[in-house]
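Title: Request for sanity check on F-box associated beta-propeller type 3 domain-containing protein prediction

Description:
We are preparing a figure and want to confirm that the structure record we downloaded matches what your pipeline produces today. Could someone re-run it with the sequence below and paste the raw C-alpha cells into this thread? We only need the C-alpha cell string, no images.
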Amino acid sequence: MNSPVINQDMILEILSRFPASDIEKSRLLNKECNKRSYESWFLNLNRDRTNSISGYFAQYNGGGDNYQTSFVYEKTGSQNNGVSIDFLPPGKVKIEACDASHGILLCVNETGPSVTEYIVCKPTIKQYQIIPNPTMQTFAGSFGLAVNRLNPFRFKILRLSSLPGILNRNHRTFVSEVFDSDSFSWKRIKNLRLPRKDGLIPSKPVHASRFLHWLSRDDNVIRFCLKTETWSFFKTPNFGVSPRLVRYEGKLGVSRWWMTSGEGLNRLWVLKSSFEKSWVKVKDIKGVGIGENVLWTPSNDMVTL
C-alpha cells in the first residue's frame, strides 16, 4: 500500500505554532517546507502565533569608546517590549557578535581603564553570563558567535586578532582563539594564514550550516568549521563586482552587483550544499544600485536596503 501524501500546507500550519528553534530543526527534514518557511507570510504568522520578537540591534559610536544601541522592530507598529541591553552591568558596552537565529549576543564591557568583561546575553529575557577574558592580549579584529545546542545551552566564540607588526609584517596572519562553553575556557588554535596578496576584510562573519564565513580582499570566502575548528578557502562567483556575503534559506549566499540594459542588479547565489564549493544562481534583485547596500533579507521575498 502506498504511503499517504503529506500535505505541505498542513505541515506549515502546524509548524507556524512552534518556536523558532523547533522550526530550525524541522527545516532539515523537508526541502519544500524549508523553502516556504522562509517566506514572509509564514514568518509573520509564526511571530504572531508564538508572540515572538523580530528585529535587529542598531549600534553607533557616540564618541570615543561610547557606543549607543537601540532595537529596531521588523514589523511596523510592533509593541515596545523593552528589548535592550540596558540590563547588563554598568560600563561602556559594545556588541561584538551575535547568533541572530537564537537571539544571543556577545558584548564587551569596559568597566574601567584597561578592565573589560566578556558577556554572553539574551536581551529578550534579560539574562546574561560573564565569561573569562581571552588569554591573548592582542587587538581583536573580528568575533564570531554560534549556538550549538539549546538544551542544555551550548555555544562557541571565535576571536581573530592581529599579531604585532614585527611578527606579522605582511598582515596576513591572525591569531585564532576559541571559547567553548563546555569547558568554559579559551584555547589557542591554529593561526589563520591568508594566501599571498590577499587580506581579511574587517567585518562580522556570516553564520550558516555550522560554519563562520568572511570575505577576503581577493573575493575569496574564508571559512571556519565550528566542529573541527579548521580553516578553508574558496572563490566567490566570477561575475559582477562588489561581492557581499549573506545568509539565504539557512545557506551561505553571495550577492554581486552588475549592469544590464542600463539597469543595476544584484545577483544572488547560494552554495549548492554546505560541504561543496560550487555556487547556484538564485535570482536577480532589481533596483539596487552600486551605492546601495543590502542590509538583510528577513525572508525569501523581502529585501531591506
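Thanks, this matches our download. Residues 236-305 form one domain.
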